[in-house]
Design a protein that fits this description.
CATH class of the largest domain: Mainly Beta
Largest sheet: 9 strands, mixed
Strand content: 35-45%
Number of helices: 9
Helix content: 10-25%
Keywords: Membrane, Transmembrane, Transmembrane helix
Radius of gyration: 45 Å
Distance between the termini: 100 Å
Number of strands: 45
Number of domains: 4
CATH superfamily of the largest domain: tricorn interacting facor f3 domain
Shape: flat
């Protein structure tokens, strides 16, 4: 029963049409009750339904429905509607389906057309006309970032779905939010945003700019520079086409303003950053490494190099930090020893790089003598690395080289590769030497280097080092540096690849058997298994690794439990739990008194740092002193490890995916009859994930503790004696005894009077 209000009667035709054919949609017994402000009694169901049918106001009612249900909301306000529970649930499912249909994002940008021009003067910014086409996919207020606030918007025009109708209501607005010029839209549909903006230059030389745009499926650029025969590059771009005024016909060589021009037309892939650079073309009169115009530029370089020595290879990473003043550079040259391989060159806007051998030019003039050290005999075996950029770089630029140099052997003298920049005004830097393996590095000879402490190195160089640097230097001129090292390779020492941080053995003794629970906290890097040698007449009941059931195996040396590898966090290996539950049958039952030997720790092939043992013996016996190699304590010195599992395990079909992939799985190949016979014997089956075993509670607790257990097993023996069971006797008080005696006296007195006379 659902109380109806005046608001509900408008939606009765929709409800009726939503019920399947043959359903028992009944409207009857209209009662004059207080009207409820909701369609359903549940407010969430009411809101969900009302949101899913917003078009009911605009749709005319079906005449057929009106004839079948001739109801008017004014006449029957406050009435009731009865429907089957299946129909009601079906109606709710339809409403939830309508509510869940929503696009993954509210909008998409389909196309951006950019047309810009500049005169290349610092006092005149570049001007762009942007035409942005986008689609709003959902009727919801959305903020769409268009351009950063560093760009000035001069004119704007937005065409929206509301502009195509006669409605005066607006659904799109331009504003500023979060450092961006934004478009605020509410109604779904296609929008076209046209902007006329001014974009500042990237530097004072007015030869480049960077514009940030939203990601769009299609981008196009048409950029005009009011200079003749200019090189224009746009990054990223495809299909670039350059045209200039001197290539056109005579009557078309001037713009309407009468200026010369150069135009770039290209397609731009989806990107959020567009970099445009232009410069005057310079004809190469002679094959020079650096253009004559670029020689006037002042370039200072700071070099940060770290060399890693080990395994017969010197691996180097060099960061070159350029500082360019009074101009720009679009190419760099670096001198590298011939024996050094260049693995990669990293940097922004790299067009290509190449290595040229024996093509170095003399930079010294007559009379300079030995001033140019790089032309000396020691520096003859060098090659030249040339790096070309997409456009000229101003101010700061970083270039990273990854190199590799072979050593003669793992133990030998090594000349550290010296990398220097060619065509720069000043170069200084820092050098760090680190060892990747167990090698001993010592200095034999050095020139042009100053030894410094480890903490004097720049932080960026320390961050690039995998291990703490062994040797640290600084220098003022890279072409004059020389470093010879003595490298000695030592044999690797055996180390532990797995250890047990702590182990806790809990044993509960009954008359003729004892149940053990061995819980360990393990650190492991490479070990695949842990092998446990159980006492005689022992049966494995359960095994867990990291709180997940695993299938144990066995061989002649004991039970094998597969291990996982420890996770690494902050260069530390995290510990995980390993749990083994097994039952041991004693040679004989406990008598009224005697001596019993109990195993308190099986042999484990991984060293145990701290061993805890808890024995729970029957409380019906009295026990003497324990004799064995493990010390009995009143309480533990620290908290022993406990099982992490607090509940049951997932079903086996889910646990099959949780078992570690690197662990070999075992299957049972026993005949069907033999497996059935084994199942009837205590439900022990091989090749199946075990179940969780809860240790029984009760009995007298005894505690043992030991440090540093390595390939050892321990047993203890103790004498016992069964306690005498005392029977409860009834006690008699003096009053009760006096009463009994008085009663006996009366009986004899009566008998005497009756028979004595």
């Amino acid at each position: 029963r659902f109380p109806l209000s005046e608001r509900a009667w408008k939606y009765l035709p929709v409800i009726a049409s939503s019920i399947p054919m043959g359903g028992s949609f009944l409207m009857g017994r209209m009662q004059r009750e207080t009207s409820s402000p909701r369609l359903f009694e549940d407010e969430e169901d009411d809101d969900l339904f009302m949101d899913s049918v917003p078009q009911v106001k605009e749709q005319p009612l079906n005449p057929a429905v009106r004839q079948e249900h001739p109801l008017t909301h004014k006449k029957f306000a406050g009435g009731e509607v009865r429907l089957n529970i299946d129909e009601y649930l079906s109606l709710l499912a339809k409403m939830k389906t309508l509510q869940s249909i929503k696009p993954p994002q509210n909008y998409i940008v389909s196309e951006i057309c950019m047309k810009g021009e500049t005169k290349g003067k610092i006092d005149q910014c570049a001007q762009f006309d942007l035409d942005i086409h986008l689609q709003q996919l959902h009727d919801e207020w959305t903020c769409i970032n268009l351009l950063p606030t560093s760009i000035v918007v001069m004119e704007s025009n937005v065409s929206s779905p509301a502009s195509e109708t006669e409605s005066k209501e607006e659904f799109a607005f331009l504003g500023v939010s979060g450092g961006h010029h934004c478009l605020f839209v509410q109604k779904s549909g296609s929008y076209s945003v046209k902007l006329h903006v001014k974009v500042p230059f990237a530097s004072s030389r007015a030869q480049g700019l960077e514009i940030r745009i939203p990601l769009a499926v299609k981008n196009s650029l048409d950029f005009l520079v009011h200079q003749n025969d200019v090189e224009i590059t746009a990054v990223p771009s495809l299909g670039s086409s350059l045209s200039c005024s001197n290539t056109e016909e005579e009557n078309l060589t001037k713009t309407p303003q009468g200026d010369a021009w150069t135009r770039l037309s290209c397609d731009v892939p989806p990107t959020s950053h567009l970099n445009i650079q232009w410069k005057e073309k310079v004809e190469d009169e002679a094959p020079t490494s650096i253009d004559e115009q670029e020689k006037q530029v002042i370039i200072n370089v700071e070099q940060y190099t770290v060399h890693s020595i080990g395994e017969g290879v010197v691996q180097g990473t060099t960061e070159l930090s350029y500082r360019i003043l009074h101009g720009s550079r679009s190419s760099f040259e670096i001198l590298v020893p011939t024996a050094t391989r260049i693995l990669s060159v990293e940097g922004d806007a790299i067009k290509r790089w190449d290595v040229l051998i024996n093509e170095r030019k003399k930079e010294q003039q007559e009379g300079d003598g030995e001033d140019e050290v790089w032309e000396s005999a020691e520096r003859e075996n060098c090659k030249l690395l040339k790096v070309w950029l997409d456009y000229g770089i101003e101010n700061d630029y970083q270039l990273i080289l990854n190199t590799e140099t072979d050593m003669e052997s793992t133990s030998c003298d090594v000349v550290v590769p010296a990398i220097s920049c060619h065509g720069v005004n000043r170069e200084k830097g820092f050098l760090a030497i680190e060892a990747r393996t167990n090698v001993e590095v010592s200095e034999l000879e050095q020139q042009g280097l100053a030894r410094i402490a480890f903490n004097e190195l720049p932080q960026r160089l320390i961050d690039r080092s995998v291990n703490p640097p062994l040797l640290s230097y600084k220098f003022l001129l890279s072409t004059q540096t020389y470093l010879n090292l003595d490298v000695k390779k030592h044999n690797d020492a055996e180390v532990l690849i797995a250890s047990i941080e702590s182990a806790h053995v809990q044993g509960t003794l009954s008359e003729d058997k004892i149940l053990y629970n061995l819980t360990m906290r393990v650190h492991n890097t490479q070990t695949q298994y842990v092998r446990v040698r159980l006492p005689e007449n022992s049966t494995v009941w359960s095994s867990l690794v990291a709180d997940r059931a695993v299938k144990p195996a066995k061989d002649s040396k004991g039970v094998i439990i597969p291990l996982q590898k420890s996770r690494t966090s902050d260069n530390k290996h995290e510990a995980f739990s390993v749990e083994l539950v097994y039952l041991t049958v004693l040679p004989q039952r406990l008598q009224r008194k005697g001596k019993v030997s109990l195993s308190i720790c099986p042999l484990v092939d991984i060293p145990i740092n701290h061993l805890f043992v808890t024995l729970k013996l029957p409380s019906t016996n009295d026990y003497g002193e324990f004799i064995g190699d493990v010390q009995e304590v009143n309480h533990f010195s620290s908290s022993p490890p406990t099982s992490e599992s607090l509940g049951g395990y997932p079903p086996q079909n889910m646990m099959s995916n949780a078992i570690f992939e690197q662990m070999p799985q075992q299957q049972s190949f026993l005949p069907r009859k033999q497996r059935a016979r084994k199942k009837g014997k205590g439900s022990l089956v091989s090749g199946i994930l075990p179940v969780k075993i809860q240790m029984p509670q009760g009995g007298k607790s005894f505690y043992f503790e030991r440090l540093l257990v390595m390939n050892e097993s321990f047993t203890v023996s103790v004498t016992y004696k069964r306690l005498k069971q005392k029977t409860r006797r009834l006690g008699y008080s003096r009053r009760y005894a006096a009463f009994v005696c008085f009663a006996i006296f009366l009986v004899f007195a009566l008998l005497w009077r009756l028979f004595g006379q």
